[in-house]
Amino acid sequence: MQKIIFHIDVNSAFLSWTAVEMLKNGAEIDIREIPAIIGGDKESRHGVVLAKSIPAKRYGVKTGEPVVNALKKCPNLHMEPPDHNMYREYSRRLMEFLHTYTSDIEQVSVDECFMDFTGIAWKFPSPVDAALEIKQKVYEKFGFTVNIGISSNKLLAKMASDFEKPNRIHTLFPEEIQEKMWPLPVGELYMAGKSSVEILKKLEIHTIGDLAQTDPALLELHLKSHGRTLWEFANGLDESEVQAEERAAKGIGNSTTLAKDVMKEEEAKKVLRYLAEKVGERLQKSGQKASMLSVEIRYHTFQNVSHQKQLPRATDSDKVIYEEACLLFDELWNKNPIRLLGIRTAKLVEEDEPQQLTIFDVQPMMERAKAEKEKKEKHQKMSRVMERMKQKYGECAIMRGTDQKKED
């Protein structure tokens, strides 16, 4: 049976939840229908845009930009301060409702989750019918809208949910990739950050389709392992599973709230190195290796963002964890001040559990085996020569350098 995965994403969550709460309390204006943002302070003109309404988007207002810039674009912009306690409560209620359908849900941020629909597909005429029901009930119950992406894996489901918004359902099955995903700009591919996109453009890779048809060896040359990851994503390849809450809790991770906001890459990566060492140490002590890695950033605005990736091989190496965490960080960080950093591992396996080798593992192993064989043959040949010399000239005629005693 083909897997069916939903990606459910609240439309402009912070602004939507604030709007619903304001209407409950008697507000006459729905801020979703006017140029409005969440974030910052209008009087001081400090802070960044955490969420924006569709009318604000028409003025060119962007999430993550300084409030002062947004006000220049739209002087009459309505602003509301963030309320993270309220966001957590709305998130909790949404997840509680979604769990009435299935427990196979992986919450990846305060406003989005994956749902493995496979086990309950028989209850509905089609996945789209089920998504329509969920979307409508969320609106009727809570007053806000969601986008739902449907596919056979998490990557494509997420890509689908990011298509036209708000309040939409989109499918993106493997057979639809060429038509729906390949024509998109490469920057719209999940995990294709600004730095990667700049490199890809220099290689004349402008669309996701261009990327999908590029030799992955070329991408690895310029982007290391992240290049192959992007190539796999461009071709719709993703084997990661929905990590239900009870399974996700078995991961090992560390995070730290920083004494002062970090604004420089080298400072952030020093923290990541420390965290990677701690996570590696805990994995080794538990006798386990991790197949999944995620990096979390909390900005000075208390906005949390995270990225995760499937590792090529399960590992307990702090060096590997650090290197992979840095790749995730580079794709995730938007250059805003950082208040908290975290590294978490999941999909743990016992350290001695056999692992399936890929074609990329086999070649290096063959090369190492060949080198070891040649070294062994060389030593055997040298030993035979030494033995003949000793037989002819005596035991002390020749010896290995490592056997000689150092002179005082």
Secondary-structure map:
Elements: E1 5-10, H1 13-24, E2 36-38, E3 51-52, H2 54-58, H3 67-73, E4 78-80, H4 84-98, E5 105-109, E6 112-116, H5 127-142, E7 146-151, H6 154-161, E8 169-171, H7 177-180, H8 194-202, H9 208-212, H10 216-223, H11 225-234, H12 245-248, E9 252-262, H13 265-286, E10 288-299, E11 304-315, H14 318-332, E12 338-350, H15 359-393
Parallel strand pairs: 2-4, 7-8
Antiparallel strand pairs: 1-6, 1-7, 2-3, 5-6, 9-12, 10-11, 10-12
Helix pairs in contact: 10-11, 13-14
Please, could you describe this protein's structure?
Strands 5-6-1-7-8 form a 5-stranded mixed sheet. Strands 9-12-10-11 form a 4-stranded antiparallel sheet, with helices on one face. It has a 3-stranded mixed sheet with strand order 3-2-4. The chain is elongated. Strand 10 and strand 11 form a beta hairpin. By secondary structure, it is an alpha+beta fold. The chain starts with a strand and ends in a 15-residue tail after the last helix. The longest helix is centred in the last third of the chain and has 35 residues. The C terminus is likely disordered. The chain is built from 15 helices and 12 strands. Helix 10 crosses helix 11 and helix 13 crosses helix 14.
